[in-house]
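Section 4.2 – Deliverable D4.2 (structural model, holo form)

The reporting period included a commitment to supply a predicted holo structure for the target in complex with inosinic acid. Inputs used:
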Amino acid sequence: MGAIVTVGCQWGDEGKGKIIDVIAQEADCIVRHQGGNNAGHSLRIGDQDYVLHLIPSGILYPGRRCIIGAGVVLDPLVLWEEITHLRSRGVAVSPENLMISGNASLILSYHRLLDGLDEEARGAARVGTTRRGIGPAYMDKVGRLSLRVFDLIDADRFRERLRPVLQHKNRVLSQVYGHAPVNYDEMLATYLPMGEKLAPFVGDEVPELNAAIDAGKRVLFEGAQGALLDVTYGTYPYVTSSSTGAGGACTGAGVGPTKVEKVLGIAKAYTTRVGEGPFPTEADPATADLIRNAGPIGEFGATTGRPRRCGWFDVPLIRRSVMASGVTHLALTRLDILSEVSIIKVCVGYRLGRHRLEVAPADAALLSQVEPEYEEIPTWGVDLSGITNEADLPSGAREYLRRLEDWVGRPIQMVSVGPGRRQTIIRAESLFS
Ligand code: IMP
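Output (structure tokens):
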């Protein structure tokens, strides 16, 4: 038995948290491997809502092992707050069920500060980041300036490594942005207690994960953001700073591609995007508004509360994500939302000048010039939120699934019709096969 990697096929917010939560029922171990607390996985369990930013959603099931891999950029203050919050709601979080890679790079206060200052400085060319310090933390990682979790849990080492890095950051803060410096002693006072609190959770995911997979354990890699936000293959520069495609699971958790058996691509039944950047199928304001406010959970960012831009399902974009991540199966989310619209459109190709494109172009600048070619799908207008069997879906909704499978070329194995665990149609014996 190999591992499953889940990957968002659009610009994030595909409803991965809910899908991952459903698969986690069958998993032994759930792993986050990239991104940081820019992610927000919303889950509804019974009548309780949870939003998790860093801790894998498997934490809500007793007996699952959750791992935060080295590819994550970890804000220790946010992680501790999340642990404390979960505990206050009766969820057990301990070194028994949560491990943090010692090699994960830290997000520290100056990263958050620099993220905001950099966005302001870019003016109209801003990326629209979540301002959680993600980009500056990854810049330090590849620039070999990061402090890591291993540094945080060794007070002497943290004191020693922080001093020259902070001197450098303070030069940037004052000389580039005209901002006041960050105080070294205050940073120690904030972060050293975090090191003490988090130390019992710290470990090495490489031997643990490889042994688990070799022993036939069911390991689930929980992708954050979406393939189109990938720092290399996404709509650059309007991307996040990590490898959000399936390959990120290997580089961010220390397992080889030979250990991955299945890549589940997760896509919404339509498309959304937060932040700036091209969006060929963005709907007119009235339709976007309708989609945004339909259903029990509207299209507003789980991390920042920003309204999401909304539009139609875009097959050329999904084809690109499917290829770049080796997607083998699909999960389609929020199908229930389309019950509320009076027309359903799907973009099945682009026009670019005299050319017809089946796959989204590599150059994001061209993506803003393409003209989508739409097919209209008959609406079904029936509430889907109580349906758990495929046979009970109205024929229009079944037709929608069948045509998406044809256009994308991958089977849809799961369909979500609401935020609850049970509001899921599963079209497979086992999600791990
Ligand atoms: P950053 O990841 O905060 O640097 O933001 C870079 C871009 O990625 C912005 O357009 C964000 O809106 C977007 N982004 C980051 N995380 C998420 C997410 O979890 N869902 C959707 N968009 C995201």
